[in-house]
Amino acid sequence: KNTPMLHYRLTQNKMAGSENYGKWYAMATVNETYDLEKLAEHMANHHTPYSKGAIMGVLTDMVNCIHELVLDGNAVKIPNLAIFSAGLTTKLAKTRKDFTVTENIKSVRLRSRSTGNFTRAELTSAAQMQEASVYDPGGTAGQSSSTDGGTTKP
Question: Is this model's pTM higher than 0.85 or not?
Answer without folding.
Answer: no
